[in-house]
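Wed. Picked up where I left off yesterday with Sodium/potassium/calcium exchanger 3. The coffee machine is broken again, so keeping this brief.
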Amino acid sequence: MGGAVFNTFATPACGALSAMQAIPLEWRILTRDCVIYVISVVVLVIIMWDGIIQLYEAIILMVLLISYLMILFCSKYIVRWYNKIVHLYIYRTRSTSFTNEETPKSNEESMPDGLYRPYFHGELVVEYRKSIASQKPSIIGVEAQNPMEKIEEYVEPDTPFVWPTGSKLNKIWFYLVWPLKLILFVTIPDCRYKRWKKWYLLTFIMCVIWIAVASYLTSWMTTVLGDTIGIPDSVMGITFQSAGGNMPELVSIVILSKQGNGDMAMSNTLGANTLDILLCLGLPWMIKILMDRKDITIISGALRFSVLSIVLCVIAFYLVTAFCKYRLNKKVGVICLILYAIFLVFALSFELNVFFLVNLPMCSP
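Structure written out below (tokens, as returned):
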């Protein structure tokens, strides 16, 4: 649950603070993702309220997952239907208000001032991204007038065996990460090299495997560390494990924000949260119940309150972006960081029994 709030506040905050300029967001896409996510969280709260997960409840999450995927795959048809309704409404409104005028040649010309124009915001997004692409330097360090130029002059990345240049800090960092870079270089075919260009599918599979291995090691080490120093697993999960487990989303949103792809960045973040609930909880719960032939008991007594607070976090994030006119800018980043800090204070206070008893004390060895 800490990872969900981390993705809701901390990840967009890093993307907003790392962007070169304010990134416009398509309000319909953001609204769709937030509504679907809130529905998933509400269902999760209802399922977890009694502290017991049954088989039919896990199946409900899987059914919602399939419905969510169907909505994504049919998104363009839904948009077409929506735009058709909007066009029809605008046409009828104009026909009623301007009956004495000549019939317009197109829907675009027929819209009087003040009426909503479909795709207008999307055109602004496209033009904005084009302006960013024209301002960014090309991959070989030359200012690119045409983003499609100089693709053939792409320089292959360096191998882990290239000695770094620069300050001593860069060299120290090189020594620290060199073993990991070597392992990844040997086990994952890098599609950026021409000789591995056709092995992109194997690259994707190996990346997924390494993410799974890293996630397991992170969870195991966090559990052992918390047990050693006497910190409950729920507290470690809300803080350290949530931040470490969502590093891929954080890196992705930083990269996409620098490229000006705000809609893709936010859809990636909110979509990851939705999949964390429907897939990453529903599927393991269903498999566990089928294997053990018994229900699952949730240990944390404050977890349902933390999950319920996620709904408030999503609503707060949506209101913040709406207040900033659906733009991902520095103001949104600072506000999201403050809200994330407030959430951590209250969530940890619940888990540590500051307000009232919700978790039993840990057993002494």
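Quick read: The beta strands are 23-24, 52-53, 296-297, 327-328.
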